[in-house]
Specification:
single chain, 11 helices, about 45% helix, six-stranded mixed sheet, alpha/beta, about 15% strand
Amino acid sequence: MLLEEFNQITYEKEENGILTVTLNWPEKKNALSPLGLLELWYAVDHAEKDKEVKVMLLTGCEEAKAFSSGGYFSKDMLKDVLEKYRTEINLRDMASKQLCLKFWDFSKPVISVINGFAVGGGFTLPVICSDLVYMAEDAWWALFFVKRAVMPDFATTLLLPFMVGMNKAKELFYFGDRMTAEDAENLGLVNKVLPKKDLMPYARAQALRLIPPKGPSLSIKLIKKTMHTYFREILENQLNLENKMWTKALQSKDFGESLKALKEKREPIFVGK
């Protein structure tokens, strides 16, 4: 996929080495569709091969007033996308294994700039891909997977317990409650919370600290590779397990009830089957 073919993200490279990848589907609050996830894979691929790219900033378009509203699947959209990218999109990969491993192997720093609400995949994407996370003070996060009776994705079942502790991770997974930017910072999920007007300028300033002449980019690459290598096989195994559990969850009565309740705009009545 060529850069000019991107439809749900934008890819903006600057001479100073900063690449800004923006989730850009405002009418769907920057939702993550199979096409958008594929475009992200190609964005990472292009950025890895481009020696001029030193740091990636990942954010959501301002028009959406969201970082990302999470996963989105439409039969009509899937039909069109699969006709063009049938060999590249695996609908059984509900945990987004290929994208996760692509980000995990990416040798350059990724800074996520959370400029609006981030739910579901909008929560889990920064967890897997980020080296640093900066968040607007009025933004919020939530793991809404449990409200749909499905599984978290993006290897969050492995990574989140490392970040916040096992019991706190279970609380976030089991209840799916909203989390303020301050909550996220206190848990260590966010490096810094800022007023929205200061968010991107601060992220850009931090990015420049990772790029010569201020930052030794080779050393930073080696640090990242050293930290990530040990977890690579473990991460892949966890993604396989998440995909296996996704299949079971999608076949459950509770998942069917969650879809029915969503359509009828009411709270679901789960039966545990």
